[in-house]
Amino acid sequence: MEIATIGFTKSSARFFFERLTQAGLPTLIDIRLHNQSQLAGFAKRDDLEFFLERICDMDYRQEPLLAPDEDLLKGYRGGTLAWKQFAGRYRTLIEDRKPEQELERDLYERGVVLLCSEATAERCHRRLAAEYLAERWGGVRIMHL
Predict the structure, then answer these.
(1) Neighbours of 29 (CB within 10 A)
(2) Is the Cβ–Cβ distance between 6 and 114 less than 8 Å?
(3) Phi then psi dihedrals of residue 112, to 5 deg
(4) What are the C-alpha distances in Å from 55 to residues 36, 111, 117?
(5) Which contiguous run of DSSP H or E holds residue 3?
(6) What is the pTM of this model?
(7) Side-chain half-sphere exposure of 28, counting CA atoms within 13 A
(8) Are residues 126 and 9 in contact, defined by beta-carbon separation less than 8 angstroms?
(9) Strand (E) positions, 16-118?
(10) Distance between CA atoms of 93 and 85, rounded to whole angstroms?
């Protein structure tokens, strides 16, 4: 099973869609809490779904089970939560949600890309989500695009 991750900030549309095309995975899973913001540019939910189909021949899915909650996101973005605190609380949140029991595992077995906004996976919940699923399911290769 392969789970890739990608962010769209600080990326041109060309570079973003080239990375997805080269990865060759069939489905992008949007794990953002807010995916309809005008600030998302080409990655706004409805536009992204269109572009993925036309440019990459990829399916688009949203997965709120892997998104942070509003308080957690506000705390981190607002500076009241350091990364380490955010990561620990996010981990507790998804452990409580048990997404590994709810997600369509066969979809993930075909290969997916987890999407969030952060430019790199180092300090982004998409990396934490991929690592969590890898721990729970085993046999997962994680790649950051």
Answers:
(1) 23
(2) yes
(3) -140, 165
(4) 20, 18, 20
(5) strand 2-7
(6) 0.94
(7) 29
(8) no
(9) 27-30, 59-62, 112-116
(10) 12
Cα separation values, 14 from 21, 31, 98, Å: 10, 21, 35
Q: How far apart are CA 48 and CA 54, in angstroms?
A: 10
Which residue in 76, 77, 74, 125 sits closest to 99, CA to CA? Answer: 125
Residue from 62, 52, 65, 54 nearest 20 by CA: 52
Chain position carrying tokens 């955010």: 86
Rounded-to-integer distance, Cα 58 and Cα 26, Å = 5
The per-residue pLDDT string of the chain (145 residues; one tens digit each, 9 = 90 and over) reads 999 999 999 999 999 999 999 999 999 999 998 877 655 678 989 999 999 999 999 999 999 999 999 999 999 999 999 999 999 999 999 999 999 999 999 999 999 999 999 999 999 999 999 999 999 999 999 999 9
What's residue 39's pLDDT? 56
| Distant-in-sequence contacts of 68-71, Cβ < 8 A, 24+ apart | 68/33, 68/93, 68/125, 69/33, 69/93, 70/33
> Which amino acid appears at position 82 of this protein?
A
Contact call for residues 115 and 29 (beta carbons, < 8 A): yes
**What distance in Å separates the CA atoms of residue 134 and residue 5, rounded to the nearest whole number?**
13
